[in-house]
Design goal:
Layout: H1 2-21, H2 25-35, H3 64-69, H4 71-84, H5 86-140, H6 142-147, H7 149-186
Length: 195
């Protein structure tokens, strides 16, 4: 028993010593980066270690003072730039407008289909409530049940048929909604409120 206690103590001492000498991963990465030879490159790589803290980063573009001092030169430069790149910008703008219109059309189609499904669900709910009220009134009066059992059977069959038809309409509308949502998903559009 004493041997096990001595071995456990020795293992704990060794683990403690190795943990004291251990270097954090961040310190190790910084040391490795500093020891690595720097290659000359045309672009400068910024990270948290070499990001300037006291200097503000500049915005790429012409200075405002140059265009303010000579407005005609600035207008000419802008016109030349627009003339040289008008075709690619217009094509990109047209493509973006087409995508936006397609996205709006798909969203409108999905919204209309959701409204249709909601309306059909509402109609089904009303029909079921009406049927339950009529059934409660019919079965509450035993004399009425005996006198009008034939007409009740016809009305009961009609209500059941109406309910079944509305459930089929809802299922078809729900499939159309899912197809429209799948089409929008394939087109890369995100749904704003999926249920």
């Amino acid at each position: 028993m004493k041997q096990i206690a001595c071995m456990a103590t020795a293992v704990l001492i060794l683990l403690g010593a190795s943990a004291a000498n251990a270097q954090s991963l961040g310190d190790y990465a910084r040391a490795a980066r500093k020891g690595k030879p720097q290659t000359a490159s045309t672009s400068h790589h910024y990270d948290n270690d070499n990001l300037p803290k006291d200097v503000h980063l500049s915005v790429v573009g012409p200075e405002q003072s140059a265009s303010a001092s000579d407005p005609q030169a600035a207008t000419t430069a802008i016109a030349q730039t627009d003339g040289a790149q008008a075709t690619p910008k217009d094509a990109k703008a047209d493509a973006a407008a087409d995508r936006q219109k397609a996205a709006e059309d798909l969203q409108k189609k999905i919204d209309e289909q959701k409204q249709k499904v909601d309306a059909l669900n509402h109609e089904l709910d009303l029909t079921q409530r009406e049927y339950k009220l009529r059934a409660a009134a019919m079965y509450a009066d035993a004399g009425n049940r005996l006198r009008n059992s034939g007409s009740w059977d016809k009305q009961d069959a009609q209500y059941q048929e109406q309910i079944t038809d509305k459930q089929k309409e809802i299922a078809a509308a729900q499939q159309q909604l899912e197809a429209a949502q799948e089409e929008a998903r394939k087109a890369g559009l995100k749904q704003k409120d999926q249920e």
